[in-house]
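Example record

One chain of 81 residues, shown exactly as stored in the release files.
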Amino acid sequence: MDYLENRWTDKEIRKFTQLLDNQLKLIKDNPFLFAESEKSNGLRKSVLSKQITIYYSILDCEIRIVTLFDNRQNPNRLINK
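Predicted structure tokens for this chain:
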């Protein structure tokens, strides 16, 4: 959170956290709603914004957030996660 507080306004942080909370609720309510990633078996991806994609996996009855990926990065970095 320190990173965001040092770089974003309070309004931007509130907007981002609300967007993230809403997306995580969608994932929680219907984990299979979003497509599987072409990058890795078992990973699903949910586009949060044009800059951020949530990658997550489903193991038994548990949803694990793998990463919030900055889409401006080299996509090959995702494979190393």
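Notes: The chain is about 35% helix and 25% strand.
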